Amino acid sequence: MTKSPSPINIQRPAASAALPIATALRGVLAKGYGRADLRADLLAGLVVGIVALPLSMALAIAVGAAPQHGLYTAMVAGASVALLGGCRFQVTGPTAAFVVILAPVLNQHGLSGLLTAGLLAGLMLIGLGAARLGTLIQFIPHPVTTGFTTGIAIVIATLQIKDVFGLATGPMPDHYTDKLAALWQARHSARWSELLVAMGTLGLLLGVPRLTKRIPAPLVAIGLSSVLVALLARLVPGFSVDTIGTRFHTVIDGVSVPGIPAILPTPAWPFGSQLSLGLVRELLPAAFAIALLGAIESLLSAVIADGMTGTKHDPNAELVALGIGNILAPIFGGIAATGALARTATNIRTGARSPLAAVTHAGVILLSILLLSPLVAHVPMAALAGLLLIVAWNMSELHGFIGVLRVAPKSDVFVLLTCFGLTVIFDMVIAVSVGFVLAAILFMRRMAELTKARLVVPSEEGVDVVLPPRVQLYEINGPLFFGAAQNAVAALHASQHERRGGVMILHLGRVPVIDSTGLVALENAIATLTRHKQEVVLAGPLPKPRKVFEKARLGEKYPRLRVADDLAAAVRIAGELSAAFDEVKSRPSSLASTPNPQRP
Q1: Cα 373 to the chain's mean position, in Å?
Q2: Number of domain units in the chain
Q3: Distance CA 45, CA 97 (A)
Q4: Chain-wide mean pLDDT for the chain?
Q5: What is the 3-state secondary structure (H, E, C) of 179-237?
Q6: Would you say 523 and 554 are in contact if contact means Cβ atoms under 8 Å apart?
Q7: SS (H, E, C) 43-89
């Protein structure tokens, strides 16, 4: 006879401890996946791949790397995050948000340092997902993210001036003000041909969507610009513009190949044999900024995808998958990656059904590297600059920026302008660090403002409690934590200078949480009250504060302290204490003793 398995054999704690991966793809396949779904995913992936091809190259160039590194990112991270992540429609790849972080890293540490920073960020992202911290991203205030994105958009737009006008600036400096100075000094080298190409590309990028949304605007704009530039170079004497082929070369077997090489990268550790504790220490701040910004952008993109499709993503699985993608991409020569909102939205609008659409997009990039490299070499740099200007405008959130300036409290405006200014003038590492500290301080300040405390006077309007003689009621309303503790008990300390003896009821029925600072402040208040010969009754502590009180053994520390379940019980205990005190006071001094009714 076969023994049936016991239902308690499922180990829930062990399962929850595993890395949360592959939830989106597993969910789609579990519900059933047919031929029609595959056809829809292939079509959507083809469209997104066409959109991602010029964008990936342009973003790598904006960082200062060769264009193929952006393609490797879209190919490797795009496929791995889609297969392992928690969002059905997310498309992952290089994004404009990373340009401000990655460009200084490339200038200071070279390509290997850039790739190593991305790998370190991947490890951090896996840690965030494994610790189930994906839901915490929702607590980042709107002024912080808006300040970041608008600042990044300004920097990206400024960087495109060089290629829009064909300026001969040489290597660009790290800091924004120095970049502006370099652009201004090179103003005499501007070429009308570059400006013509950039403006024509901008016109096509803006005009094509008004005529049809079936054909990706970047495909038409970049394709037509490349063809026209090739024709004008042959027909018009002296007409020339920089292209990917003239700007970038790769040496393969001793032969210099213009543009991107038509081969796939060989996997290798990005740091080679140069990894050291000193290098890791230098790259950690940038890696932290990459991980944090990547997590924010990817999860915000996933939230918007949920809103467009009515689905629900797993934020922790998405972070783990994003971490794995950012570890794999540098091994294959790719830069940092995150969820790309514009590509994700395109994926949804073109009918994607599952993560296999994003995998298809990665396959399109792969085939483009192998088959279209000679054509890619003819893409004008000015056309890619025009494309990035559109990207910068779309990510600027100008309406949100102006909205915060117009209607938000002064503290929000301060945080917004600080994050914006630090992003533009300094870099994203400083901006992320300061921005999150400001966000935390702002949160603590507002939480402290929510906590109110008062000495209740029964004759006040709206107060229906009747207090016995010699009894006072002090009410605290809100969380009693380190930001609010001192203010919450300040009035209580002040009242003791005017009164000695009697009973003080501390009403804590509206205190949801208390931390160690709040406990110390409350203990100091109780000690002050008992020194002034007052009995103390804690009224109605909620479950979490009550557990803290029990662990702190307040009853043992303060003999004059009583605890009541609610305010009515506290008033009754206070009345008994007051009556007993009056009775003892009326006895002869030789018989007097301190009353102690209802001592817990």
Answers
A1: 36
A2: 2
A3: 23
A4: 85
A5: HHHHHHHCHHHCCHHHHHHHHHHHHHHHHHHHHCCCCCHHHHHHHHHHHHHHHHHHHCC
A6: yes
A7: HHHHHHHHHHHHHHHHHHHHHCCCHHHHHHHHHHHHHHHHHHCCCCC
What is the DSSP-derived secondary structure letter of residue 340? Answer: -
- Region 70-85: mean pLDDT is 95
pLDDT at 261 over 70: yes
Q: Nearest Cα to 71, choosing from 264, 226, 247, 339?
A: 264
* pLDDT for position 430: 83
Q: Retrieve residue 110's tokens.
A: 């070279």
- In this predicted structure, what is the pLDDT of residue 18? 59
- Angle at 241 (CA atoms; ends 50, 260), nearest 5 degrees: 45
Query: Which carries the bigger pLDDT value, residue 170 or residue 387?
Result: 387
Q: Using one digit for the tens of pLDDT, what is the confidence trace for 412-432?
A: 899 899 999 998 988 777 887
pTM of the model: 0.77
With respect to residue 10, please indicate whether it lies within any of the assigned structural domains.
no
List the one residue out of 70, 73, 99, 166 whose CA is nearest residue 383: 166
Q: Which domain holds residue 167?
A: 33-283+291-442
Q: Residues 504, 477: contact at Cβ < 8 Å?
A: no
490 and 469 housed in the same domain: yes
Average pLDDT over residues 107-125: 94
